[in-house]
Q: What sequence folds into this?
């Protein structure tokens, strides 16, 4: 089995070590004998997003050039998501994939529109460790996979943006401790088909091996159909997850 | 007479604050509490303008800021000045926020509120420059480097540079001593008149061949956004760079290190800039060789620290001979590759706080032959940075090495470092989880490796230093 992976803007969206998610995702595939082939795409390269099983977009501060380029690539990215590609976007990457982004000076930028969500930036940052109860439908899917028996998600958030979800977007989970999308409605992240946006750093997949395997299974589905992943020894990840969970509860 | 007048004008809140600070410092000493910040914190509560009242009684204030190397650079400078007969007040234990700086000055002053030392060397946290520079008005500011560090506090690197520039805006006469090899640092000196640069001469891409990692944060031109091209780089984004699209390039260093020998001891030559001549391939810089230096320190990054401290000392009129002699006698501060004896073997304690720093520490460790066992202890207290995701920017795959026998993962985030090492390819059988400080040392002690290392984040570093000191010579 083989996975085609696209790491988008690795040189520009590289803050908060989100690229660690790429390493985790690829290792978990390789440990199961699945080959991975990664393309690193930056501006202004042309891409056929539909070629990829998994697309990753991290966080950063550089909005200008990335934003302009992403708007051009946007429709093709959306096409890939409509075709079942798995997309993981973190922080700024997540915000730019919404419908719009309102900057602190009041200017409103249109987004790519994959998620039915809009973001407003305010001066005060929402920061700290965060604990989520995974969305119920995702919990069911994770249970079906076997693997790490976790029903929560752990990460570190650090964002001046407040994101509000529309009706068509599903959250990643419900905030138990921390702030989430906007610090008000207890939602965190957004989902559309196999696209996932979230504010969770850490990196996200480091303490959430169950979510990593869910994304991996979904990515494999495109090329290989229903695949049962061999279980891995996730004791260290589960330990790290539970230490933080216990502290936050 | 002048000082009397100044004292009168300091007012009641100053004196209450000053005496309260001294009182707290006294009790800290009595109960053997480190007290590197508390006296200043108490005093600042009572009199927020404390620093602007204390600072004028110093002839010269030198501030050191940047991400890595602040403590070593300041301590080296204090050390050099002391040997040349100039005593200096300093926050030498690395308490580098407003309260730590205030503590250092309060402790240095006489009960009459007058400075004992003519000079103050202040290590200043990158996020605290805005509070400390306007009130202390340093005559010289040394900027070491900007790497990704504790992002939960500062948001981004550009933000650090902007903060520094803003805090210097009201201080037109402050001279700057900048690391020429760091494009991010260099931008801090633009538009200012009194700027000197220091740098290290390298061979073309000479360290890249040794597997240099790829943390190059300042890799884009600050003027036009084009990726910078490097003739060579030492580590991280530090090197000799230029922009292929515009005129931005590494400034000619006024102080240049050449002929580096990076072994058990660091040996290198320190040169002065002499003149720029037109040569066959454009401008050619000629340097006057000043002196050969040798320091009992490990790690290439320490050359930058020695270079910055020496350059500052030279600008203050210290002779080359004194610099060469004192550098040779320098003992590193707590946990800056500090050596202990543990279970009859050498045990080195190193502070780790960001990706660029830990990469250099790991390279230095691996240069040693022989079996090694390590403790890596990561805490997430405010002083460490609450977000430990920087672990994923560091190249821990280096530790998947046959000479590494065991790695004990410790601290409040023991699980995080263990997970990181697992994905870096370190075999699980080599990993041990032990969150406790004492416990982790006990496990380390029975590994029977030839050499031990403890890599610890800030808030747990001193616990290890204390325990290792106790066991010294056992």
A:
């Amino acid at each position: 089995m083989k996975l085609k992976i696209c790491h988008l803007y690795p040189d520009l969206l590289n803050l908060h070590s989100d690229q660690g998610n790429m390493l985790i995702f690829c290792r978990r595939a390789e440990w199961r004998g699945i080959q991975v082939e990664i393309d690193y795409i930056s501006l202004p390269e042309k891409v056929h997003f539909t070629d990829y099983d998994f697309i990753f977009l991290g966080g950063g501060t550089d909005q200008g050039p990335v934003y302009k380029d992403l708007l051009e690539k946007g429709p093709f990215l959306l096409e890939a998501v409509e075709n079942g590609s798995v997309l993981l976007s973190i922080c700024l990457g997540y915000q730019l994939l919404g419908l719009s982004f309102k900057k602190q000076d009041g200017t409103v930028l249109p987004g790519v529109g994959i998620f039915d969500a809009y973001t407003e930036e305010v001066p005060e940052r929402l920061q700290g460790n965060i604990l989520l109860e995974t969305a119920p439908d995702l919990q069911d899917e994770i249970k079906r996979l076997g693997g790490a028996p976790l029903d929560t998600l752990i990460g570190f958030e650090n964002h001046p943006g407040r994101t509000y979800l529309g009706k068509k977007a599903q959250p990643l989970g419900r905030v138990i401790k921390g702030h989430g999308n906007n610090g008000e409605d207890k939602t965190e992240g957004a989902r559309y088909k196999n696209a996932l946006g979230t504010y969770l750093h850490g990196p996200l997949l480091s303490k959430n091996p169950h979510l990593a395997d869910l994304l991996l299974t979904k990515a494999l589905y495109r090329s290989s159909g229903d695949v049962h992943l061999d279980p891995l020894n996730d004791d260290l990840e589960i330990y790290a997850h539970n230490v933080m969970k216990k502290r936050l509860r | 007479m002048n000082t009397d007048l100044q004292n009168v004008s300091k007012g009641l809140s100053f004196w209450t604050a000053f005496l309260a600070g001294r009182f707290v410092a006294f009790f800290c000493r009595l109960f053997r509490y480190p007290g590197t910040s508390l006296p200043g914190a108490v005093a600042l509560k009572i009199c927020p303008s404390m620093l602007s009242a204390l600072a004028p009684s110093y002839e010269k204030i030198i501030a050191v800021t940047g991400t890595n190397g602040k403590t070593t650079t300041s301590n080296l400078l204090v050390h050099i000045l002391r040997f040349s007969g100039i005593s200096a007040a300093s926050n030498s234990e690395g308490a580098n926020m407003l309260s730590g700086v205030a503590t250092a000055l309060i402790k240095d002053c006489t009960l009459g509120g007058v400075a004992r030392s003519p000079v103050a060397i202040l290590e200043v946290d990158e996020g605290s420059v805005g509070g400390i520079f306007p009130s202390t008005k340093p005559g010289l500011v040394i900027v070491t480097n900007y790497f990704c560090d504790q992002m939960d506090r500062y948001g981004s690197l550009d933000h650090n540079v902007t903060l520094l520039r803003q805090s210097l805006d009201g201080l037109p006469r402050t001279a700057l001593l900048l690391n020429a090899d760091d494009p991010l640092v260099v931008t801090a000196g633009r538009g200012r008149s009194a700027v000197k640069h220091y740098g290290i001469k390298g061979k073309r891409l000479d360290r890249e061949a040794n597997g240099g990692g790829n943390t190059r944060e300042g890799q884009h031109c600050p003027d036009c956004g084009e990726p910078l091209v490097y003739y060579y780089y030492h580590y991280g984004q530090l090197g000799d760079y230029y922009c292929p699209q515009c005129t931005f390039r590494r400034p000619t260093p006024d102080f240049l290190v050449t002929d580096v020998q990076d072994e058990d001891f660091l040996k290198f030559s320190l040169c002065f800039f002499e003149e720029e001549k037109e040569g066959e391939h454009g401008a050619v810089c000629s340097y006057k060789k000043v002196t050969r230096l040798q320091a009992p320190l490990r790690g290439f990054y320490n050359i930058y620290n020695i270079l910055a401290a020496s350059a500052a000392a030279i600008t203050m009129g210290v002779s080359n001979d004194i610099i060469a002699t004192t550098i040779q006698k320098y003992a590193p501060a707590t946990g800056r590759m500090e050596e202990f004896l543990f279970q009859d073997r050498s045990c080195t304690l190193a502070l780790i706080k960001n990706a660029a720093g830990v990469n250099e520490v790991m390279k230095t460790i691996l240069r040693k032959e022989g079996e090694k066992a390590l403790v890596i202890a990561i805490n997430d207290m405010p002083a460490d940075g609450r977000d430990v995701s920087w672990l994923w920017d560091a190249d821990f795959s280096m530790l998947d090495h046959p000479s590494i026998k065991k790695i004990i993962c410790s601290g409040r985030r023991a699980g995080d470092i263990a997970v990181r090492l697992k994905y870096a390819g370190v075999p699980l059988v080599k990993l041990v989880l032990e969150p406790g400080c004492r416990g982790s040392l006990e496990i380390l002690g029975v590994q029977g490796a030839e050499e031990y290392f403890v890599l610890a984040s800030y808030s747990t570093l001193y616990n290890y230093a204390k325990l290792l000191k106790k066991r010294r010579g056992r």
Summary: The domain at 2-248 of chain A is CATH 3.40.50.880 (Rossmann fold).
